[in-house]
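[job 0417] fold request received: DUF2313 domain-containing protein
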Amino acid sequence: MERKLTELLPERYLASPEVGAAAGVLWVLGEVFRARALDWLQQLCIDTATWGIVYWEREYGVTPLQGESWDDRRARVKAKMRGAQTTTRDMLAGVAAAYAAGAVSTVEELAREHRVRFRFASSGAFPRGIEAMTASLLEVMPSHVVFDYLFDYRQERQAAVRASAGMLLHVRFTAGGGLT
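[job 0417] inference complete; emitting structure tokens
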């Protein structure tokens, strides 16, 4: 419950125009300070950072891409945060989840083939930033391990998705689910 400073002063002070004017100015300054303090606190959380995202990116060594949205920049920083450890299945799942746009992602290790398979299943949005996700995975995975993506979406559509390094992924979405 917000109260103005003038509501907290005794009535005998309010009769003075100087005190009333000073109280009004102090209340406005206090509101400006409160708004700036709340904005600053939002920059301390990666999920709400806007102008402070540059500090997160600098701390984790992420170079922002031209025209990238706030959500994409946050996802890249989160992936870098999750990837700052030993490469494990859970860590790779965390990196992929940062880009999965609500899709359930599972990680399958194929040790004999030196391969990791990422499987995305959803009836919603396609994972955003396939190129950024690929770049993040390349940073954290050992160089001898290759990886691929499998997409299982429950919509009738066909798409060709261009990923980094010239890869072209052909994906067919079927009404009943399942990859074809």
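[job 0417] notes: DSSP finds seven helices and five strands in the chain. Residues 162-166, 174-180 have pLDDT under 50 and may be disordered.
[job 0417] exit 0
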